[in-house]
Amino acid sequence: MTINWFKYASPASFYFLAGRMVPYFATLAIIFLVVGLYIGFFVAPTDFQQGEAYRIIFIHVPAAWMSMFLYVIMAFWAGVGLAFNTRLSSMVASAIAPTGAMFAFLALWTGAWWGKPMWGTWWVWDARLTSELILFFLYIGFMSLQAAIDDPKRADKAGAVIALVGVVNVPIIYFSVQWWNTLHQGASVSLVQSPKMATAMLSGMLIMTLAAWMYSIVMILTRTRLIILERERHTAWVSELKEGVLE
Amino acid sequence: MIWWIVKRDLLLAMRRRSDVLTTLFFFIIVVSLFPLGVGPEPNILRTMASGVVWVAALLASMLSLGRMFSSDYADGTLEQMLLSPVSLAALVTGKAISHWLVTGIPLVLMAPILGIQYDLPGDALLVLTLSLLLGTPVLSLIGAIGAALTLGLRGGGVLVSILVLPLYIPVLIFGTGAVEASSAGMEFGAHFSILGAFLLVSIVFSPWATAASLRISMS
């Protein structure tokens, strides 16, 4: 039996696959969210230096991670769309942007809430904060460029170029801690060293990251489905869908 | 081929001198507005001089990006350039070089005079000018990508600022960093090295990305 690897590269078949996948990922997202928040609020011990205020990391760190991760994924799919002219890849890239921008905003917002009690200021011009802000601007640039172009093909390709140009910025964000070494505390989690935080804190944070990840998948799949419907509204299968012939 | 484009664009710029002067005067006016807003205290002015001059240079360079391709686009020259057998990346490099010669060089030459207005000492003036000399070509090269992507779009001018200004930030950081390091009596060679690295990387990648963007915008 040969497998048709490209079956789900067609928007029409992906639409139904995504529709079937959404409930599973939504369930996972809710489970991880409940468990993660429970650990975060009730299991994780109070930090001896930062008191209760540190608990914002259970939102802040996953949001910051997801915002960077999603930008890379967005640039990847946009690049695939540019290179192979696969419409679905570009649609997924456009679907990722709003969720990524939301996470970048959330990371900045929760960072400000954490910064006020810890550093005594809502905002400092530190390398990592600034890079996160730039990342947010890059998302905004990507979305406004795509919004300004009426022809979806040109919008996809132009967005892909700007996403790939911007992806150069993501490693700068990551290494900025080493490069500029300023006020922001160094990364507490590393794959090579043993973590410097309590196990409960770490597991809460990782579970919240999984929750954010699953949530992103749900949002991206749902948004891709909407984009597919919008772009394919003149095709036969969408009108059949509208008349309730297809399931 | 690159030089042919540069010569042609310079000739066009000389025939329309007001365009060049407008960008330069924009730069001068923006820099002159800050003391009026902040106050004439020399110590404050001296510390913010490099940042103000650099931000004004970013804005001036960005505002003139629209002209890089739009007139050629309007009269069909750009289409002929795309059809020509010569590498589009080379043509685009010529465009970026002439943009730099027309907008970047006047800014570099004007910067020491504006620095004097801000009471910068001699060494800092020199470092400021050199940092602009290294940094402004990067602005033209990165800006070319934005100009190509927004070609012929509604509200292209505002859009190009959203696309391009975030990408200018590293240049701004190290350009002003060099001046601050020299004012503090520290070694500023590292900042110049990084600016030079930005320049080399953008020379390699920007013409290629700009050519791809032009093809997308013109298809």
TrEMBL record, chain A:
<dbReference type="GO" id="GO:0017004">
    <property type="term" value="P:cytochrome complex assembly"/>
</dbReference>
<dbReference type="InterPro" id="IPR002541">
    <property type="entry name" value="Cyt_c_assembly"/>
</dbReference>
<keyword id="KW-0812">Transmembrane</keyword>
<comment type="function">
    <text>Required for the export of heme to the periplasm for the biogenesis of c-type cytochromes.</text>
</comment>
<feature type="transmembrane region" description="Helical">
    <location>
        <begin position="91"/>
        <end position="113"/>
    </location>
</feature>
<keyword id="KW-0201">Cytochrome c-type biogenesis</keyword>
<feature type="transmembrane region" description="Helical">
    <location>
        <begin position="21"/>
        <end position="43"/>
    </location>
</feature>
<dbReference type="InterPro" id="IPR003557">
    <property type="entry name" value="Cyt_c_biogenesis_CcmC"/>
</dbReference>
<comment type="similarity">
    <text>Belongs to the CcmC/CycZ/HelC family.</text>
</comment>
<feature type="transmembrane region" description="Helical">
    <location>
        <begin position="161"/>
        <end position="180"/>
    </location>
</feature>
<keyword id="KW-0472">Membrane</keyword>
<protein>
    <recommendedName>
        <fullName>Heme exporter protein C</fullName>
    </recommendedName>
</protein>
<feature type="transmembrane region" description="Helical">
    <location>
        <begin position="200"/>
        <end position="221"/>
    </location>
</feature>
<dbReference type="InterPro" id="IPR045062">
    <property type="entry name" value="Cyt_c_biogenesis_CcsA/CcmC"/>
</dbReference>
<feature type="domain" description="Cytochrome c assembly protein">
    <location>
        <begin position="8"/>
        <end position="184"/>
    </location>
</feature>
<dbReference type="GO" id="GO:0020037">
    <property type="term" value="F:heme binding"/>
</dbReference>
<dbReference type="Pfam" id="PF01578">
    <property type="entry name" value="Cytochrom_C_asm"/>
</dbReference>
<keyword id="KW-0813">Transport</keyword>
<dbReference type="GO" id="GO:0015232">
    <property type="term" value="F:heme transmembrane transporter activity"/>
</dbReference>
<keyword id="KW-1003">Cell membrane</keyword>
<dbReference type="GO" id="GO:0005886">
    <property type="term" value="C:plasma membrane"/>
</dbReference>
<feature type="transmembrane region" description="Helical">
    <location>
        <begin position="63"/>
        <end position="84"/>
    </location>
</feature>
TrEMBL record, chain B:
<keyword id="KW-0472">Membrane</keyword>
<keyword id="KW-0997">Cell inner membrane</keyword>
<feature type="transmembrane region" description="Helical">
    <location>
        <begin position="191"/>
        <end position="214"/>
    </location>
</feature>
<feature type="transmembrane region" description="Helical">
    <location>
        <begin position="20"/>
        <end position="38"/>
    </location>
</feature>
<feature type="transmembrane region" description="Helical">
    <location>
        <begin position="86"/>
        <end position="113"/>
    </location>
</feature>
<protein>
    <recommendedName>
        <fullName>Heme exporter protein B</fullName>
    </recommendedName>
</protein>
<dbReference type="InterPro" id="IPR003544">
    <property type="entry name" value="Cyt_c_biogenesis_CcmB"/>
</dbReference>
<feature type="transmembrane region" description="Helical">
    <location>
        <begin position="44"/>
        <end position="65"/>
    </location>
</feature>
<comment type="function">
    <text>Required for the export of heme to the periplasm for the biogenesis of c-type cytochromes.</text>
</comment>
<dbReference type="GO" id="GO:0005886">
    <property type="term" value="C:plasma membrane"/>
</dbReference>
<dbReference type="GO" id="GO:0015232">
    <property type="term" value="F:heme transmembrane transporter activity"/>
</dbReference>
<keyword id="KW-1003">Cell membrane</keyword>
<dbReference type="Pfam" id="PF03379">
    <property type="entry name" value="CcmB"/>
</dbReference>
<keyword id="KW-0813">Transport</keyword>
<comment type="similarity">
    <text>Belongs to the CcmB/CycW/HelB family.</text>
</comment>
<feature type="transmembrane region" description="Helical">
    <location>
        <begin position="125"/>
        <end position="151"/>
    </location>
</feature>
<feature type="transmembrane region" description="Helical">
    <location>
        <begin position="158"/>
        <end position="179"/>
    </location>
</feature>
<keyword id="KW-0812">Transmembrane</keyword>
<keyword id="KW-0201">Cytochrome c-type biogenesis</keyword>
<dbReference type="GO" id="GO:1903607">
    <property type="term" value="P:cytochrome c biosynthetic process"/>
</dbReference>
<dbReference type="GO" id="GO:0017004">
    <property type="term" value="P:cytochrome complex assembly"/>
</dbReference>
<keyword id="KW-1133">Transmembrane helix</keyword>
